[in-house]
Design goal:
Oligomer: single chain
GO molecular function: dihydroneopterin aldolase activity
CATH superfamily: GTP cyclohydrolase I, C-terminal domain/NADPH-dependent 7-cyano-7-deazaguanine reductase, N-terminal domain
Shape: elongated
Enzyme class: lyase
Helix content: 10-25%
Order of helices and strands: EHEHHEE
Radius of gyration: 16 Å
CATH architecture: 2-Layer Sandwich
Strand content: 25-35%
Keywords: Folate biosynthesis, Lyase
Structural class: alpha+beta
Number of domains: 1
Protein name: dihydroneopterin aldolase
Number of helices: 3
CATH class: Alpha Beta
CATH topology: GTP Cyclohydrolase I, domain 2
Number of strands: 4
Pathway: Cofactor biosynthesis; tetrahydrofolate biosynthesis; 2-amino-4-hydroxy-6-hydroxymethyl-7,8-dihydropteridine diphosphate from 7,8-dihydroneopterin triphosphate: step 3/4
């Protein structure tokens, strides 16, 4: 499913890009013992009950708040050692789907400091309510 906003289907897009945390992520001994820089990207397809023609109330309670999205990802990433970037991304995606308005969660996890001649390595996973 596309994460593009789609008024006809009543969907908007909420995203958090470049959330940088210090997390213990990886299979190597040094990754278990010491945190490293991890960059998280989140894209959500969220139900928009006022689409395609309406405007909802200008109130935070009616939307998925990106500060809450970032806090959820941060909390999960910093909760303790995780061996696989895939597992971390899946945990974040599943947690974000707990909000019934979220229909698709796509989460990317990057480790920018792993390979000296590469800008970043990582994974993107997608979980959906459908």
């Amino acid at each position: 499913m596309s994460l593009a906003p789609d008024a006809a289907r009543g969907l908007r897009r909420v995203f958090v890009r470049g959330l940088t945390v210090q997390a213990r992520l990886g299979v190597h001994a040094h990754e278990k013992a010491r945190s490293q820089r991890v960059v998280i990207d989140v894209d959500l397809a969220v139900r928009d009950e006022h689409a395609p023609l309406g405007e909802g109330p200008d109130d935070l309670s009616r939307v998925v708040d990106y500060a809450t999205v970032a806090a959820t990802a941060r909390r999960i990433a910093c909760a303790g050692h995780v061996r696989l970037a895939e597992t971390l991304a899946e945990r974040i995606a599943i947690a974000l789907l707990a909000d019934a308005r979220v229909v698709v969660a796509r989460v990317g996890v990057q480790k920018p400091d792993v390979l000296t001649d590469v800008g970043s390595v990582g994974v993107v996973v997608e979980r959906t309510r459908f």
